[in-house]
Amino acid sequence: MVDRPPSHPRRVGHKGAHHIELGNTLASFDAALAHDVDMIEFDVLSERIDGSGRLLVAHDYEDMRSRTPLSFEEALDHLAGEAFARLEFDVDVKIPGYELRVLEALRERELVPRTLISGTFTDSLDEIRAAEPALRLGWSVPRARRDYTTDMLTVIPALAILTGYRAMLPRKAREALRSGRFDAIMAHWRVVTPALVRAVAAGGGELYVWTVDDARLIAKLTAMGVDGIITNDPRLFSR
Question: What is the CATH number of the domain that holds 106?
Fold first, then answer.
């Protein structure tokens, strides 16, 4: 684990460095490394929705069909290289059904100590915990396909739902962390509050915030004391 002072959260590259090179590619991973991240986040998805087929580095099935994605094994072989030896990894498991195959691939490359597996499906994370208690797990919240607050047709109900969600999330996060079910909370920036920061700390876990592509918001979250900030553009950390 990378040691940093409390005022300096981990710098996490989303899909590598998606605003510099196309995300979830070797070029994007290399760009993240070149811009001094501490951790690289990337996605793994099964070729078929039932969890079967190859494991591919893609955010969703539309992304998978739009290009020729890396295999998960190709990505891990690259990231296991000496150039990335100081980095940690956040492997985002998108849907249930192939969790243990992801775990086995990490074990084969001795990457379990440097990896956090995140996801929105809690039962999926529970299965990984049972199979490998030493592997860090991050519960990603909320579960949503996109940011509905950016759409004029959905913004009002979305903001109303978010208000209630922000109010109940600190208690749920604290309880989940204290129970040992998860090690980290991976929260969208819209649901991050000082109360959530305090609750995660009280639960003994870490708080990672996604996906933050604004330097002013990075500064605000840093001042709040979050543990990690996930961005498409790691150049923002130096601004």
Answer: 3.20.20.190
pLDDT by residue (tens digit) across 57-99?
A: 999 999 999 999 999 999 999 999 999 999 999 999 999 999 9
Whose CA is closest to 43, among 22, 34, 35, 52?
22
Q: Give the range of the structural domain holding residue 226, as residue numbers without chain letter.
A: 10-233
Can you state the angle between helices 99-108 and 122-131, rounded to 10 degrees? Answer: 40
Total domains, the chain = 1
Count of alpha carbons within 13 angstroms of residue 194, beta-carbon side: 3
Cα angle: 21, vertex 23, 28; to 5 degrees: 50
Neighbours of 149 (CB within 10 A): 14
pLDDT beyond 70 at 228? yes
Is 39 a member of any domain? Answer: yes
Answer yes or no: is 130 within a domain.
Answer: yes
What pLDDT, in 10s, does the model give residues 159-179?
A: 567 888 999 999 999 999 999
State the burial class of residue 211 (Cβ atoms within 10 Å of its Cβ: 0-12, 13-18, 19+): middle
In a domain, 239, yes or no: no
5 occurs within a structural domain? no
